[in-house]
Amino acid sequence: MLKTSILKAILIASVAFSGFANADADDNKKYRWKLAETWGPNFPIFGDASKNMARLVDEMSNGRLTIRIDSSNRHKSAFGIFDFVKNGQYQMGHSASYYWKGKDFNTMFFTTLPFGMTAPEQYAWFYHGGGMELMKSVYDKHGIMSFPGGNTGNQMGGWFRKEINTVEDLKGLKMRIPGFAGEVLAKLGAKPTNIPSAELYTALERNTIDALEWVGPSLDLRMGFHKIAPYYYTGWHEPATELQFMVNPEAYNSLPEDLQKILTAAMKLAAYDMYIQSMHESGKNLATIQEDYPHVKIRSFPKPVMTAIKLANDELLLEAAEKDPKTKEILDSISTYQKQVRAWTNFSDRAYLDNFDSK
Amino acid sequence: MLKTSILKAILIASVAFSGFANADADDNKKYRWKLAETWGPNFPIFGDASKNMARLVDEMSNGRLTIRIDSSNRHKSAFGIFDFVKNGQYQMGHSASYYWKGKDFNTMFFTTLPFGMTAPEQYAWFYHGGGMELMKSVYDKHGIMSFPGGNTGNQMGGWFRKEINTVEDLKGLKMRIPGFAGEVLAKLGAKPTNIPSAELYTALERNTIDALEWVGPSLDLRMGFHKIAPYYYTGWHEPATELQFMVNPEAYNSLPEDLQKILTAAMKLAAYDMYIQSMHESGKNLATIQEDYPHVKIRSFPKPVMTAIKLANDELLLEAAEKDPKTKEILDSISTYQKQVRAWTNFSDRAYLDNFDSK
Fold first, then answer.
1. Is A272 in contact with B277 (Cβ distance < 8 A)?
2. pTM for the whole structure
3. With contact defined as beta carbons under 8 Å apart, do B284 and B185 qualify?
4. With contact defined as beta carbons under 8 Å apart, do B268 and B60 qualify?
5. Over the stretch A324-351, which tens digit does the pLDDT of each residue have?
6. Which residues of A touch B353 (CB under 8 A)?
């Protein structure tokens, strides 16, 4: 009896004591979370971002919050992440906001847009231009917290078996290009399609498709497309693809404040880190492509082709804005902010790159 | 007596108890640190980076590590930060590595270089291209730990009272441009000088100097230079000025591991955040300049001027590399990495900006 009550007194006292040093009474409670990601196991760069985030949280919280990562091979539903997090089946998800445009069209604007902002421009919009607030206003009604989850950098326009010289060349072109960018090309007569990644190489090799876009050198090299499609076009449709961390709000609110801060900082840091890792891997793999596969020709679409694509894109966005005031609010915010920050990009990095190449 | 010994037992027990949940026995110890920064109090953006870092550490550590920031008005030695941290007078500093080139020439390469990398390129070099390891090899012998401390983004080439049309126009030009970039211009006949920031406006107004560089719209607007020098030139000399957090290694090693991780993550996050904040403030202030001061003309130096400056820069770097094997090692790393990553920048963001402007 004595032993038990002493132990009890010590336990109570120790909780009270640590209460002096820390704001939260239950600060030593351990939280075991699970994150579901869209990607398969060991998917490069994207998968590194979620691992990096979980490692940072584990280290900074001294093991008080640990996050187990389930890849698509485990949870069997690459595009079920939204519902997993909403229902609380998983406390967290790692995916991309534009995958949910079927559920809510307005989720599409928090990943990237054709002819949209570059990665640093878009981060400035998220954190200083009202982007985070708009994303919250869209996700609140779904009961999900959404955060930037890592940027791929500017994506390439894709691998083409034949050169594109005129807008006519787009007519009937069978291209794997999902989402809104596919709709843009469809407006110009192309036949956009989506094909699972495992079947892409064969589809291109057997002329089931004439072209495809994937990401950029960082992830394209391992896919082998350069062996069968010699034209590699520069980008227009995904200038800054930002992945997404999702958090279940009830789970978040159950955390003591310091763990909330640790989690938020870890997500933000892992997102930035992925942008920089993408930059590195792209440079490295581009060098490999250029050295080992000199037949690959990097091209930009001719100006009239680019202009036609841009017009089609503007028309589609205008139509969307007319259908929904929230869409209009988001698109207005993006276009106003982009105009302002782009003027700076043009006078800073862009002018600098020109100055550098003076000869 | 009884009361005291019970209290003692409880104290011992509570320490032992918290030892079960956490790896470090002294995890509730509070660390009170001081940081000395080069900047004055409430200096925008630069000062926000150190405050952001300290706030992140405070919140994530639940107050176990707090960092008091002393600005230059308090410690009275803007360029004494290196010694403050080395001697342990301050546990941390916030400054810029190129300020220490008089102490060790090789510290100069960890801020930015004329015709060097852009901010995301340079972060990729730091974290994936060997930059952090090289910085460590330079700072280890001074007993200082050095980390990226926030990027200004691409800096403008400066405010000029007269247009620069030929290399001849640089001859005798009195310009406030400190450091290595000043040496580059001196090679072409300019008269570089350094003037304290408080006296810059008057010096330019009274023709004591003909031109000056400061930062870019983010910080230039408040200085008022646009009122008296109508030519604003695009940049070449500081494409990605990275500030610096310094930490005293003994102080760092005295921290439990989780606080070390929190501090490291907070510094890295605050550095990225400052880059994005700079992007935002630059865009915003550039818009103000263009709207309110339409007489300001933004120019790039003519190609022959830019080429002459670049040649002078290359010669000076070559001379430096010949004098010191460590300098050569760092410059080789930078130029090899820059060449690789720049190829990607040119095919991604730069080509994209061209595609965007197709009309």
1. no
2. 0.93
3. no
4. no
5. 999 999 999 999 999 999 999 999 999 9
6. 118, 345-346, 350
